[in-house]
Specification:
With 149 residues, the chain is mostly helical. The chain folds into two domains: 62 residues; 48 residues, no CATH class. 71% of the residues lie in helices and 0% in strands. Helix 4 crosses helix 5 and helix 5 crosses helix 6. It is elongated, with a radius of gyration of 24 Å. The protein starts with 10 loop residues before the first helix and ends with a helix.
Amino acid sequence: MNTDKKMKLSKRQLAVIEDLFDGEIEEQAVLDKYRVSRRLYNKWLADSNFAGEFDRRIDAAYRQSAVLIARYAPLAAAKLVQLTDSKNQETARKACLDIISMHASREARDDGRGTKDETEPAESPPQSELSDQTASQLLATLAEEKQRY
């Protein structure tokens, strides 16, 4: 028999978790709504069953956020590329820097996750999806900025 037998959460605990992650009202208002004292809430948080469900909800919320960001990343990238043609030099410069930092950030995440197989032979650098004209504009805008300073 398993000594780590998991106890089910009470309806009240589940209701508190639901309302906390619903995002409609703040934490204290949720506790007040269900007449849960701060002391009892802290006790629940120390309970592995409650904390486990709480953590699963947090993980799910982060996954949903990641999906949403991934879904709109191509649109955001396209908008940034359009902004490189802005008549406002500062806007164009910032768009260029954002494009470069997006690419660098993605590479850092890929390397940090260990998603690349260390046993595979070294690949050539990934090809940029920027057109030659856009890449030239990026470099020209950055060069202009460097000359100003």
